[in-house]
Every structure is written in C-alpha cells, then in structure tokens.
Amino acid sequence: MSKIYIPRDTTALAMGANQIAAEIAAEAEQRGEPVEIVRNGSRGLFWLEPMIEVETANGRIAYGPVERTDIDSLFNSGFLQGSTDHPLCQGLTEAIPYLKKQQRLTFARAGITDPVSLADYQSLDGFNGLKKALQMDPQAIVDEVKSSGLRGRGGAAFPTGIKWQTVLDAVSGQDQKYIVCNADEGDSGTFADRMVMEADPYMLIEGMTIAGLAVGATQGYIYLRSEYPVAHQILNEAIEKAEAAGFLGDNILGSGQRFHLEVRLGAKAYICGEETSLLESLEGKRGLVRAKPPLPAIVGLFGQPTVVNNVLSLAAIPFILSQGGQAYADYGMGRSLGTLPFQLAGNIKRGGLIELAFGLTLRELLEDFGDGTFSGRPMRAVQVGGPLGAYMPESQWDTPLDYEAFAAIGAVLGHGGVVAFDESVDMSEQARFSMEFCVEESCGKCTPCRIGSTRGVEVIDRIRNNENREANLELLSDLCDTMIDGSLCAMGGMTPFPVNSAVKHFPEDFQPKTEQGA
Ligand SMILES: Cc1cc2nc3c(=O)[nH]c(=O)nc-3n(C[C@H](O)[C@H](O)[C@H](O)COP(=O)(O)O)c2cc1C
Ligand code: SF4
Description:
Elements: E1 2-5, H1 10-14, H2 17-31, E2 35-38, E3 52-56, E4 59-63, H3 71-76, E5 89-92, H4 97-100, H5 118-123, H6 128-134, H7 138-148, H8 160-169, E6 178-183, H9 192-199, H10 201-215, E7 219-224, H11 229-244, E8 260-265, H12 275-282, E9 306-310, H13 311-315, H14 317-323, H15 325-329, E10 332-333, E11 336-337, E12 339-346, E13 352-357, H16 362-369, E14 379-384, E15 391-393, H17 403-408, E16 417-422, H18 427-441, H19 447-464, H20 469-486, H21 490-494, H22 496-505, H23 513-516
Parallel strand pairs: 1-2, 6-7, 6-9, 7-8, 12-16
Antiparallel strand pairs: 1-3, 3-4, 4-5, 10-11, 12-13, 14-15, 14-16
Bound molecules: flavin mononucleotide and iron/sulfur cluster.
C-alpha cells in the first residue's frame, strides 16, 4: 500500500488540498491501487502547496504545486511508486534546498507527522521535555530556560526565563497562577504561530505544561485569533487526546501534578495581541490596554501572576528541556540566541517559513530563499516585524537578522514577518496606510495614538497633495515624536517607525508627482 501525505493546514486547504485528497483517493480506487492518505501539516514551502509527498524506501518524494488537472498524469507517471519523472516532482523532500538549508529546531516535526497523532509526536521526541521537567524542581526548569537565552518571539524580545522567574517568585498565598499563550498573530505576513498550531499542536501543549510546572500555574489559556478556524479545531482535538492520555489534567503522567488547558477565541482586534489588552479580553471585557506597572507577571489574568508568552516562545520550550538550554543557545549571535522562524510574504516568488539561527542577512533570506519578487520586477522595499515595523531600503538589506543590529538602524525583527514590495510600490501610500492602520486598530485609551494617528493621515494626505509640503513634513515629524514619547503602548509608540522610515529612505515618493520624474 502506498502512503501519501497531503497537508490539511489552512494554506494547503486554501489551495484546494481537500479536493486533491478526495480525487486522489477516488482515482486510486478506480485504478485498483491501494493507498493510505495521511493528512499532515505543511512543511512551510508555501509556493509548492498543495505539496503532496509519497513515502518510498529512500525517503519521501514531493510533488507540487498539484492541481486537479495533474492527478491523472501523476498516476500515469507512477508517482505512487515515487517515480521522479513527473514535471511537478521536487525530488526527495528533505533535499529540497529551501528546506535543507534551514536549521529547524521548533519546526523539526512540522509537516512530517499527522498533527493530532500522539504516537507520531512521541516517535519524534515528543513529550521528552515534559518527562524531564517532571523530574526537576521549578527553579531548575526556569534556570534551564534562562540558560537557553530564549527571548520572547512575540515582538518585544524580553527574556523568557526572567519573565518566568518573576511569576515563580510572585507572592505565595495567591492561590492561582496562569499561563496564557498569545496566539493572536496579527502581524502582516506572519503565519508561524498558525503553523505550530496546525502542524505540531502537542509541542505547544507540552511547552505550556512545562511553563505551568515551572511557575506553579495549574491553568492555561490559548488566546487564539478567531480567524484561525482550522487551528482551533486541531488544537481542541489535540487537547482532548492529550487529556485522555494523561499528558494534561489532574495527574500528569502519574506525577500528581496538575495542568488544564483551554482555547479561547480572540475578538478580531489587532490590539488584543498586546498582552494587557489580551488579558482584558480574556476576562470578557473590551480589549483596552492596561497601564504598566504592574506587570502581568505579578498582576495578570484575574489579578493573578501570569506568564504571557507567544506561541513560538512556548513552542521552543520542549526542545530546550529535552536537549538542554545550552543546545539552544549554541545557535544565533550576540544576545539573539537560538533560531527565529522567518516568514516570507508579500511580493515574493517563494513565500513560506524559514527557520534559521539569528545572524544571516535579510538579503540572504530574500534572495537565497525568496528568489526575488513574484512579479519579477526589482524589489524596492521590505517591511520587517509587522505593521509597526520599519520599511527597509536595499542599502539596509545586508543587516544581520539580530535584535540588536536591527535596533541600531531603527528597525525591529518583531515576530519575524518579512513583507516584500516591488518597484511599483508608492511609499507615501504605505506611510498613509500605517497611520490609517493605527486609526483603525487603536484601543483609544490615550490621546497621542487615538487622535495623533487620525491627524497623521490628514498630514500625509496634505503632503501627498503638495499642500505646504515642507511645513507638513516637519509637522509629521513632530507628530511622530509625540506619538513615540507620549503613547501608552507600542501601538501608538511604534506606528511612527514605518512612517518615518518611509519618509527617510524613500523621500522621492513624498515629492510632487511632477518633480519625481525630473
Ligand atoms: C499592538 C500590539 C500587538 C501585539 N500583538 C501580538 C501578537 O499578536 N502576538 C504576540 O505574541 N505578541 C503580540 N504583541 C506583544 C505582546 O504584547 C507581548 O509582548 C508578548 O505576547 C509576550 O510574549 P513573548 O515574551 O513570548 O514575546 C503585541 C504587542 C503590541 C503592542
Ligand atoms: S497607544 Fe494606542 S493602542 Fe496603546 S494604549 Fe494608547 S490608544 Fe491604546
């Protein structure tokens, strides 16, 4: 019997994976060729989706992107036996350069397994970290995370071990602590969190359980953006199975330790990804940002000490516990240790997920992996780090992907989202879009962000209409300074990053149209 893998993650489904799976099954039956179809997660090679794989004695052979009209010829070419004759054949999956050149620690299992199979997960090191953690005392677990150098992957890059230490040390006598996973993933061009949840959900469940053991929390919540229905279904299925098998619940693996986990759907607002606004939303209130201090680590969900971590931060924990913090810290550079799953999107030929140690350059990512723009026109600008990240011109593409190197040029890595634009982009329009995004998504609690962003759109419109251009450029700069200095959170505080970078690096787009060609 031939074994075929056809992904069931959102990207593959959007490209027709369900229909392909049904038609391959029907065609195989008609031809009398017995097949077993496994619905795996994506490998993250999105430009090849739906990418189907056939198991052979030498390894899995990939074919993609497969369309319905290719099915007949795939069968005729002998793809069920792993024939490499078909034009869609990519050869051995593991040898595809896009995948082979990566350093996958967090995404090591992604796309290989059936995401909700406990047996698959355990056959590839799954729950080894949890088993180790159950033998350790809480401080030793926190120390292991500290030694990994892991910094929060949600945007602010705060050291995870230090956050956990704060929650571990939070005054005893408070009867409940919480682990909250931030799965709101609102940044433009990002999908790594979704890939974790859709391709390897037990890794997140294991990471959160270890976090619970480390800080003394017995309840966890995954705050999931409601736009991710497939992830929602897979997570719920995985939680149910993990609970039934004793990996979650009142007596984890017979240890007497307790940890419960629930998924809660988000409120479809970008600001609900900000940790304090997220906590308000989890408590059933409107997602308004809370003033800090107190930190959520001390006064968090329902006023209790709470770890709030991004999906990728928590997903890195099983590796750190099973292989040791040092094994993780051996990757990366400077204070940016371990790997970051970069997400290539926008006008790019080969979009997808690339997990690599910090330190390669943006150009290597764009050229070696992305293979240039999808349109074939020269690339002009790249926005890294979501809608609040700076627009980077080509002169900055040799910057190493490292938190400090990016900060030194006024840019951010954020959640690792990289969105490319070709030469047809109008950067004054992008600057306007950034301000408008803030108008739409501001929680409204503080004036510089709520009012400033609206005034920002108006000022950019005046510049674009060539009304008192020089004076308005100066006004825009002052307004951005006010937003940076006066905003309560990074929403208003960082919106000036894309705006200022557009003005600074692409000044020609802020000139009157008649002067541009001169
Ligand atoms: C406007 C705004 C939106 C944010 N959205 C997200 C998000 O979608 N996911 C996320 O993990 N962090 C997001 N963050 C960062 C969180 O506030 C917080 O730093 C993070 O969840 C902490 O987890 P970490 O330490 O693992 O990164 C956002 C921050 C701001 C200011
Ligand atoms: S900066 Fe914007 S989003 Fe943040 S608290 Fe102020 S109004 Fe709300």
